[in-house]
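Thread title: Can someone regenerate the structure for this chain?

I was given the following input by a collaborator and told the matching structure tokens would be attached. They weren't. Posting the sequence so someone can regenerate them.
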Amino acid sequence: MKVAILQPCFIPWLGYFNIIKKVDLVIFLDNVQFDKRSWQQRNQIKSTSGSMYLTIPVLSKNKYYQKINEVKIDYSSNFKKKHLSSLEYNYKKTKYFDLYFPLVKEIYDNEYENLSEFNIKLISLFFEKVFFKEKKFTLASNLNFATTKSDLILDICKNFKASIYVSPLGSKSYLNEIEFQNNKIKIVYNNFDHPTYKQLHGNFLPNMSILDLIMNEGTKSWNVI
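Best answer:
Regenerated them for you:
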């Protein structure tokens, strides 16, 4: 069993999906501390003048230690209209805009109270309607482990009887590789080589949201990843 353990990020980049492509099961790590500086609530799209951020506003005042699955979306700002307008303005001339924009808009038109639920709905949409690939997703919060960091990752892998854990390269700094070896779990660090693909608006920009790839390449996106 190959597993990946990933935070439920907002419209993630290609490397995120490249990890998912290589595993049998994805566990969304939704019960760790929320970080406003991370990709949990923002990501980049390509605009007519370069990259731009789309950010989901959240309720965070006096909520210093809330977990990702506790974070509520702040609907007092009109972010939905702004996001959809930005997507339409920058991608309306792409080949697959008319096919996929309405599906994304449908997710936005619903009001998901929780940030992680909203993010997971979008990720699931891409698999169901763009990639046409069945992927198994589950939540770390369903497991009720009290451990943290490397021990938490190991406990989750053991729970699902993983033989291989496919990890983002950045996790190498904190994973206890010896403990994984002792439990006969191989760590494979995903060193993603970013591909190029068709883009509008000038020179190619890497590290954009998956939406950039989907709008430009459609059903070919899975092969690009």
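Strands lie at 2-6, 25-28, 42-47, 50-55, 136-139, 164-168, 186-190.
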